[in-house]
């Protein structure tokens, strides 16, 4: 992306989440790519739902001792 000094920034991850889970796409009949793939994000505030689910899943993994998969490119 233009203007970024490094590709290793949380901003890019946020843009990916917004693009794939929150922003409706005209080419997908006003659905998100996630909805087109059968993934539904419920709730009035999709950002909050994603954050809460991530926190919940992370704490569940920590309780079981399971390691989270590293992000691609890490």
Descriptors:
74 residues, flat, mainly alpha
Instruction: Estimate what percentage of residues fall within beta strands.
Output: under 5%
Rg for CA atoms = 15 Å
Main pleated-sheet profile: none
Number of helices: 3
DSSP strand count: 0
Percent in helix? 40-55%
N/C terminus separation? 18 Å
Q: H/E element string?
A: HHH
Into how many domains do the coordinates divide?
Answer: 1
pLDDT average, as an integer? 79
Structural class, judged by helices and strands? mainly alpha
Overall shape: flat
Q: List segments where confidence is low: pLDDT < 50 over at least 5 consecutive residues.
A: none
What does this structure look like?
By secondary structure, this protein is mainly alpha-helical. It has one domain. It is 49% helix and 0% strand. The model has no long low-confidence stretch (mean pLDDT 79).
């Amino acid at each position: 992306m233009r203007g970024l000094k490094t590709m290793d920034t949380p901003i890019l991850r946020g843009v990916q989440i917004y693009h794939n889970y929150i922003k409706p796409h005209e080419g997908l009949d006003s659905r998100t790519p996630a909805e087109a793939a059968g993934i539904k994000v419920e709730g009035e505030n999709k950002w909050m739902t994603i954050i809460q689910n991530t926190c919940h899943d992370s704490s569940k993994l920590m309780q079981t001792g399971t390691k989270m998969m590293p992000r691609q490119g890490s």
